[in-house]
Design brief:
Helices cover 36% and strands 27% of the residues.
C-alpha cells in the first residue's frame, strides 16, 4: 500500500530542548493511525512539524513528495489538513465563515456544494451558521474544527487531541465522525490521550515516550500488549 505520509529521523527542538528525537512513522493511503503517549511525549510537536508549523530536521514525505521548505498553506493545497489541539476557532467569525476559511485555498466550483454537505452531515452547524464560533460549546467547536478541515478536501487529516475536555457522549460523537471520515478513504494520523478509544478505531498505532517512538504495531496487538495496558489502559484488557 502506498504511503500518504512517511516520516524519517524527525527532530524538533525548542532552543536547547529536544522535543522530538528522530522518530519514524508512516501512514498508508486510506489508513487510520493512532499516535499515543503521555503528556509531553512530543506528539503535538510532531504533528505541528508535519503540518509546517514548526521548524524540523529529518525527512517528511507527503504522498511520495518531500516537504522540505513547504509552508503550511502550501501543504493544505497539497491535501494535508490539521485539526489542532484546542480547536483553533476564529472566535469572532461565524460558523459559516469558519467553514469557508477551510476552503480558502480552493478555486473549484464545488465549495458551495461542500458547505451544504457539511450542514447536512452536521445539522447543529447549520442551526448555528450565523452564530459566532467563540460562543459554541466545546463539542460544537470540535465538530466545527473537523468540518472546517474537511472543507479543504484533505487526503491526509491530522487530528490533535479531538476528545480533550469533552463529555463522554460528545467524545462518542466525535469518534463516530472520525470513523466515518476514515471509511471514506481519507488517511488520518490521530493524536489522542484516550489510548483505548484511539486504538479501537485505528488500524495501527505508535507509542511515543520522551520524544521517541518506543514501539508500534497493529492496533489489536497494542491493545493487548502488557506495556500499553500498564501505562495507558489502566492495566485492564
Amino acid at each position: 500500500m502506498a504511503a500518504a505520509l512517511r516520516v524519517s529521523e524527525l527532530c524538533v527542538s525548542y532552543g536547547a530542548i529536544e522535543a522530538v528525537k528522530g522518530i519514524e512513522l508512516e501512514v498508508r493511503a486510506g489508513e487510520l493511525v493512532a499516535l499515543i503517549g503521555a503528556n509531553g511525549a512530543g506528539k503535538t510537536s510532531s504533528l505541528k512539524a508535519i503540518a509546517g508549523l514548526l521548524p524540523w530536521s529529518g525527512s517528511i514525505e507527503l504522498f511520495g513528495d518531500p516537504l522540505r521548505g513547504a509552508r503550511a498553506h502550501q501543504l493544505l493545497e497539497r491535501g494535508l489538513a490539521l485539526v489542532p489541539e484546542g480547536r483553533g476557532m476564529f472566535a469572532r467569525m461565524t460558523v459559516s465563515e469558519n467553514l469557508m476559511m477551510g476552503a480558502f485555498t480552493r478555486r473549484d466550483a464545488q465549495v458551495g456544494d461542500d458547505l451544504e454537505q457539511m450542514y447536512q452531515r452536521f445539522p447543529r452547524l447549520k442551526e448555528r451558521s450565523r452564530q459566532l464560533a467563540g460562543t459554541l460549546s466545546g463539542g460544537e467547536q470540535q465538530i466545527l474544527a473537523m468540518a472546517r478541515a474537511l472543507m479543504s478536501r484533505p487526503r491526509l487529516l491530522l487530528l490533535d487531541e479531538p476528545s480533550m475536555g469533552l463529555a463522554p457522549i460528545l467524545v462518542e460523537q466525535i469518534f463516530s465522525v472520525i470513523r466515518e471520515v476514515s471509511e471514506r478513504g481519507i488517511s488520518i494520523l490521530l493524536v489522542e490521550q484516550n489510548a483505548r478509544l484511539a486504538l479501537e478505531i485505528a488500524h495501527r498505532g505508535y507509542v511515543m515516550e520522551s520524544g521517541q517512538v518506543s514501539f508500534s504495531g497493529p492496533s489489536p496487538d497494542l491493545l493487548h500488549d502488557a506495556r500499553v495496558r500498564e501505562a495507558y489502559l489502566g492495566g485492564a484488557l
